[in-house]
């Protein structure tokens, strides 16, 4: 069944991508064409076939040593904030997510 | 006087080692070539002249002090712009990351630099590697050096074009569904996608985590082998949990004959719809050359490969949606100003930061992962992935490598393929290798008589047999050197050769 513009608007909301009405129309056309391309997947009898989620299937997970490793893996705070579009002191700055308080810091 | 155009990476490193020229002179010649050629090819998003001269000066200082210098000493290298290098921006050719300054250096980049390479810049690409032409770059297109009215391929189009235009001797790219092998084919250079896990992906912006692999471009197979050594010799990277030990010397058996080894061909693929006659003819010549060198030709069957595109366009968008969720406009990247809520800020930052194709892929992934749809597509796609992997395993019981096209056609003109789903189908020969994690390499065969554009063969092999793959690639290159096609291997595209770059 084809995806409607409403369906696609719902997906855009879930994907957190705001689409204009024009984009929504084009995206709906695209989504239906793309999903059609995937049809061969649905024509298989896959009873009893194990899925492969990862190409190196028979290897086990690699674990790091359980030690604090600030020197290599953790960025210093100033470095981590270097690319933030909006920061405040040691923090990333975002619009309020709790209530509609106008209070700012 | 030498020109960088006629020197291989091995020759440059040897010249620096022997004192025939300095790494600084090589860096200056490369920057001079970029200066003279870049306006017509536009392979770079950022030229890192300061970093290049600094790295070269360090190489020269090391040599002067009698210290050991690396196997890539002085070799000019370009990096795809999804690879972090401190001192450069890493934009992924997206408005989202237009001003993003690298905060660390990717392991693959680090290892090339540790081997003595000189970083000349960051290469253009399709936005976040979504595309087959580099046209989805948010900043500018890249032209094919063999005909600037044609696309260079993609997504690593800038890396391939920089090497083909003689702006860099080596380049790194990444390949999720063909993004190294297809642009290598379009630009007439050697491009290798190693086995999944052979090269660390730490510091490379993720697209499809079960598919992505980093690999090198060069004009000669030997140069690609040299780069593979630099990328893998230090062993597995503890910073990438998928990284595997790959302790082989890629140069060691490079020139060994292929006599007695076997090459598989898939008759059903050679009849595929959309495969052009010129590519089919070139492949037949490559096969003849391998046969003349003593390789045995066997027919193999890959019955499920026809579903590889469908499986890929389920798996890759799902993984991309998951990976690109990090771009929320908070920690880095574009942030929409003046938003009242975090949800609005996120949705508008993503809407205005991402280009069209990046939005399409994420929308498709979001849909396929949604409840009720996952069971219909995602899970079955992973089962089909098992079938494709089994097909290859069965085929490799009767052959050492498989010979097939890299792309169904030579490079097309800008604007000739604009429909996104039609574009997806052009990955038909490369995508299955990512699905099962095996290695593949594209080797130039010369220019076709019809379009006068580079045409290439692809070799695929079992996982972690990349060295044997290069041995076959070298055998094809020998055939080309002896007059199959253009001759002389893969030269710098004639319209660009000699425009700066004198040493």
UniProtKB/TrEMBL annotation, chain A:
Keywords: ATP-binding, Ligase, Nucleotide-binding, Protein biosynthesis, Transferase. GO terms for molecular function: ATP binding; glutaminyl-tRNA synthase (glutamine-hydrolyzing) activity; transferase activity. The keyword Nuclease does not apply. InterPro entries: Asp/Glu-ADT_sf_sub_c, GatC. It is an enzyme of class 6 (ligase). It catalyses: L-aspartyl-tRNA(Asn) + L-glutamine + ATP + H2O = L-asparaginyl-tRNA(Asn) + L-glutamate + ADP + phosphate + 2 H(+); L-glutamyl-tRNA(Gln) + L-glutamine + ATP + H2O = L-glutaminyl-tRNA(Gln) + L-glutamate + ADP + phosphate + H(+). Its EC number is 6.3.5.-. It comes from the Bacteria. The keyword Nucleotide-binding applies. Pfam families: GatC. GO terms for biological process: regulation of translational fidelity; translation. Heterotrimer of A, B and C subunits. Belongs to the GatC family. Allows the formation of correctly charged Asn-tRNA(Asn) or Gln-tRNA(Gln) through the transamidation of misacylated Asp-tRNA(Asn) or Glu-tRNA(Gln) in organisms which lack either or both of asparaginyl-tRNA or glutaminyl-tRNA synthetases. The reaction takes place in the presence of glutamine and ATP through an activated phospho-Asp-tRNA(Asn) or phospho-Glu-tRNA(Gln). This is Aspartyl/glutamyl-tRNA(Asn/Gln) amidotransferase subunit C. It comes from Parafannyhessea umbonata. The gene is gatC.
TrEMBL record, chain B:
Belongs to the amidase family. GatA subfamily. GO terms for molecular function: ATP binding; glutaminyl-tRNA synthase (glutamine-hydrolyzing) activity; transferase activity. Allows the formation of correctly charged Gln-tRNA(Gln) through the transamidation of misacylated Glu-tRNA(Gln) in organisms which lack glutaminyl-tRNA synthetase. The reaction takes place in the presence of glutamine and ATP through an activated gamma-phospho-Glu-tRNA(Gln). Its EC number is 6.3.5.7. It comes from Parafannyhessea umbonata. It comes from the Bacteria. This is Glutamyl-tRNA(Gln) amidotransferase subunit A. The keyword Zinc does not apply. Residues 136-147 have a biased composition (Polar residues). One of its GO terms (biological process) is translation. GO terms for cellular component: glutamyl-tRNA(Gln) amidotransferase complex. SUPFAM superfamilies: Amidase signature (AS) enzymes. The gene is gatA. It is an enzyme of class 6 (ligase).
